[in-house]
Amino acid sequence: MLSRPKLTEIDIVRAIAIIAVLVIHSTSDATQLPLGTGSHAVFFILNKASLFTVPLFIWISGVVLFYTYYDRWEPGMSRVFWTKRLRKILTPYVLWSLFYYLFNQFIFHGNIGFDVVHVIKLLMSGNASYHLYYMVIIVQFYLLFPLMMTAARRSHRFRQGLIPIGIGIQAAAYCFHHWMYPIPEYASLFLSYSALFAFGAFMGIHYAVIVAWSVRYKSWIWSIILLAGVAFVGMLLLHEYGLASIENSWFELALLLYCMAIPLCCVQWGRNLLESSSPIGTVLSALGGASFGIYLVHPALLTLWDRIAPDQEQLWLYDLHTVASILIGLFGSWLLVRLYTSAQRKGSAN
Question: Coiled coil where (predicted)?
Fold first, then answer.
């Protein structure tokens, strides 16, 4: 069976997600600025409003996997799928985990040691660097994907119920973790993001239909994004300033609604940019195509840049430093990815 057409707008969605990653990581220290300053408020809002990024990347994985494989999936493809996908992600994961394990020791302590047991624990948890837990989550979804795909192909009820099933699993895991017993490494488990992956899976199967539906109801979807986003960030601000004590479940609910609505608007915007042949669309498509490399590289650049951070008492300099962090992390990483890709191509040509 012929492959379905490539979803070119997904690269623009990836670009939006990787920009949000850089915003979060570049403003994380700035959120610790003195309360009451304009700098703290602006960077705090930017940081928290960008928390849709990991759910968005997981949604993208669900879309791409189910869109690509649904029409041609056979249960016998599981082994080939696991071999191909896990090789593509596990090799860079292990190499970059080792890199950050050694790099962070040298930068922060000035020496390098190697503890095999500790390294294995870091690999299992994704804690070799603050961003690598995402790859642990993706590996879990790759392991589950053949089972989910086979169930979706065989059962109409499962296929049509993907979104409520995903939400139900995530809600049950949260309730158990929050109300009964803390689940170890909860943030690195697929249970924390099953709603977004299931939504992506459902959209991958019914892509054209859902895009048309989202265009028809775009005003409602944007309203949900604005209301849920304002509610989430607003509650965090109230908590930050000690003005209200809000139960954590309200934050989780607002964030879930926010993250479930954002992908639909990102897809709409991406399609509009491509249809209009906008140069912004071309740039974002290229950025999205390099997003995996940017994701891997940027923490090293941010760590080096933060070594020359100005004193927090000089707020205007600290503001410039934070803005520069976003730009250096994004474009510096992108440049390194392009240089690496170019070198690879030259090596292949020779």
Answer: none
